[in-house]
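ESCALATION

Customer reports they have been waiting on this structure for their group meeting. Please prioritize. Original submission:
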Amino acid sequence: MDPRSSILSKIVDHTAVVGVVGLGYVGLPFAVEKGKVGYRVLGVDQNVSRTDKINRGENYIPDVKDEELSSLVEKGLLRAETDFGRVPEMDAIIICVPTPLTKNLTPDLQYVESVTREIARYLRPGQLVSLESTTYPGTTEEVMLPILESSGLKVEKDFFLAHSPERVDPGNKRYSTANTSKVVGGVGPVSLEVAHTFYSQTVSHVHKLSSCRAAELVKVFENTFRAVNIALVNELTLLCDRMGLNIWEVLDGAFTKPFGIMPFYPGPGVGGHCIPIDPHYLEWKAKELNFNTHFIALAGEINRRMPEFAKEKIIRVLNRLGKPASKSKALVLGVAYKKDIGDYRESPAIEIIRELMAEGIEVSYHDPYVPRFKEHGLDMESKTLTIDLVRGCDIVVIATDHTDIDYGWVVEQAESVFDTRNATKNVTESRNKITLL
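Update from on-call: job pushed to the front of the queue and completed.
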């Protein structure tokens, strides 16, 4: 049987062995979904703690159900390794590794390249390799393909290569890996056919695109769209501050219009693995083509400005209270980049903490989802939210609006509150203590 027919047959009858490289917020939920429909899944992650937990049936990703993970491990349908020695057993190899930025805001593809080289060492006929990591248009064909073909095998004939960007939204209770539509592009028609068939087994709708580059651009556009619109409301926030207007009131009014507008809200900055990073991938690729993406660059500047603006407004509040920054204490509520999750990657809350500390303010934090963090030279532990903690601070800064915090109680106990998320919207008592972003 030829490589194409062989892998298609295994995919359709669910006898294919699925390899998932990178078992984080994207990889582990994907691995579990594949295991749930009967595929045997082999995960690869260099984090020994992760692989040990998986092999014990212990879950560490909130979007994965504990019982589903443990059941798959007990049935022998999910196993994790720290090396690539079992790549020859895999029929479909899905890459879900980080694609961060360098300090100069340029793409850092070291993980993609390293993983691809490891796969190339073991590549055999009849395998599908698909990249899910967000990246600039051209990565799959220009970076991965030459490395894989260094094995002596030829794409479209011996193996198949595709790009299908992840669309994971951590903490989203409505959309999961299974019911979030996907796009997929292949380096050729056979790769597209194989990849589309593979993803269609567990994803409700898979949309075909003409190339890997088109699929890569879809993802960076999706997150650039959000970054630009968030930057628009953030800039409006800066203007409303000058004009003495309440940005939240203005937006609530604007969003009553039933057409021609889409709700986006301001905040202390943008965080996570997508919005602060992905637009720079597109910006970098555009420069390679001698094209300047002015709009995207400006949006990035505005969003990166917000933690500093938050710090400036906090100091204004302290000044009104007659409290010099160098002798003040602040409590930050929430350091995760979005509510109700424990992910603090690129979190603007941590940047605010750094900004406040630079002014001499003594800062502590409380976050029920992040008991401790080490980031940007900071090493801090979450404090228990007590009356003494709140009353012992000059200002409480709501940086992340976790739903299980009683903001009415916080306002009642605090001397002053700076709310960057409008979490106190429904608090009616002591509103004179509250300053909004």
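Sent to customer with the following note: The chain has two domains: 3-210, 230-436.
Escalation resolved.
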